[in-house]
Amino acid sequence: MSPERTRQSASRPLYTPEEQQRRNETPWTLVQGILAPVQFLVFLVSLGLVLRCLATGQGETAATISIVVKTLVLYTIMITGSIWEKVVFGKYLFAPAFFWEDVFSMLVLALHTAYIVALITGWLSLDQQLILALAAYAAYVINAAQFLLKLRAARLQAQNAGQAGTHTQGGMAAAEASP
In Å, what is the CA distance from 22 to each residue of 16, 38, 90, 150? Predict the structure, then answer.
């Protein structure tokens, strides 16, 4: 990528004004805002159960159920997130603003799905299944960090735009003028 293109993509806001309006108006934003912390809570509980099962050999059923629940919540957030992305950006996946997050999300889905396949087919031993689940969880943590960093950058851009608006609009911040 050329330095000029890098500067352009770094300076491009995450949302255009139209995309931000669609983001603010769609109920799918609230759905994502609720599902993300729910998924993280399910992940933490499941991680504890998986680690306990690996360390002690106890709690296989609880660990297995927790991984299946985590996977179902992941599929739910991915489907609703795709709908959100379609509403906001006009594409179900791989909108430029979230391209790399979506790419990595595919790896997260693949690893979780591989676990389900291994569970159903008996393809791997219990320990191997749990290690596969941990690999899926590691990918999930990286992907969640990607999204958090992207959203933090969007907030900082919005704050900076608001501060710039204060200087150019005689004391009225641009953010105050928007809904």
Answer: 10, 24, 10, 18
83 burial via Cβ count (<10 Å: 0-12, 13-18, 19+) = middle
Nearest to 137 by CA among 25, 22, 40, 57: 40
For residue 164, the model assigns a pLDDT of: 56
Between residues 47 and 156, which one has the greater pLDDT?
47
What tokens were used for 13?
């806001």
Mean pLDDT of the chain: 85
Structure tokens at 94: 């791989």
pTM for the predicted model, two decimal places: 0.79
- What is the enclosing helix (H) or strand (E) of 177? helix 174-177
Give the Cα separation of 37 and 162 in Å (integer): 28
Angle at 87 between CA 81 and CA 89, to 5 degrees: 90
pLDDT of residue 11: 60
Distance of alpha carbon 62 from alpha carbon 60, whole angstroms: 6
State which amino acid sits at residue 147: F
The candidate with the shortest Cα–Cα distance to 158, out of 17, 5, 33, is: 17
Taking the C-alpha atoms of residue 36 and residue 64, their distance in angstroms, rounded to an integer, is 21
